[in-house]
Amino acid sequence: MRVVIAGGHGQIALRLTRLLSGDGHEVVGLVRNPDHEADIAAAGGQAAVLDLEQVDVGAVAKVLDGADVAIFAAGAGPGSGNARKDTVDRGAAALFADAAQQAGVRRHIQVGSMGADRADSLTDDDSFTIYLKAKWAAEEDLRARDLDWTVLRPGGLTNDPGTGMVTLADKTGNGRISRDDVALVLAGLCDTPAAIGRTLELIGGNTPVTEALNSL
């Protein structure tokens, strides 16, 4: 299986690259900083240097050509400023989906955010509200496309060691989840047809990841 990950240098993406490459899959991580190529290689992947805020859809489609799964795990980050929350969390997500369609990559997984579904009801103009609105717009864009899509909304992220025990459902309520376990679920979603066309929430829980995926 060939998997292309947008935001390939992110903490979850690097964990996911290690998991997938360790299982013998080919992983390509999209990064905008060439200094990050070594980290992707150390995780067992291959880097493609592209800035999703600057590049055209055709260049991204070339990287996606021949892929089995496209995963959007990019984000502007907490210190990025409000403008980049739109250009990355919404705009780059839409560009990546455009490129997937152009390249004929049907399986598409997008990492969203818990609480994105209440973005339209929020009236504040703080950075977190702007972030949630961008994530919600990206979800709405993806849901309208002819792709085998899944949106995964993790709860509050931690760097605690993964337990392999989660709660994965259409609605989970608030909670926290280790980045290790998010990566493990993303790896499983690559080949879980029951997740297609669904927006799923993920927090820590008492169900083994394999069982949680099989129960969808």
UniProtKB/TrEMBL annotation:
Domain spans labelled NAD(P)-binding: 7-193
SUPFAM superfamilies: NAD(P)-binding Rossmann-fold domains (SSF51735)
InterPro entries the record matches: NAD(P)-bd_dom, NAD(P)-bd_dom_sf
A UniProt-annotated Pfam family: NAD_binding_10
Domain of life: Bacteria
Protein's recorded name: Putative NADH-flavin reductase
The species this protein was found in: Kribbella kalugense
